[in-house]
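Late entry, evening session. Most of the bench is empty. Finally got around to the prediction I had been postponing all week. Sequence below, unchanged from the version circulated by S.P.
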Amino acid sequence: MIRSAASDEDTAKRLFTAMRGRSLDAYRSVLDVPDLENRVELLAAHLIGVTFTRHVLRAGPLAAMADDELTRYLADTLRTILLGPASPGAGP
């Protein structure tokens, strides 16, 4: 579906809408943060971009990155998107 989304606008919209809708419902049940809809939109866009780079373009450092390293980076960025930056002095 990711490859199809790259060349078909309707498929891309369906992918993004499905990802956003399911995620928004799930996050609403566990998070009480301002601008949750915006955060989930950013999260979806971020994950689609990472997925597209790794599995469609298959080029560059992100595509070559080991899964465990990517997981560490994504954990940090996704946490920040959903919850905001960590408090100063807070550990990982």
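Two things to note before I forget:
The chain has one domain: 2-83.
The mean pLDDT is 84.
Will write this up properly tomorrow.
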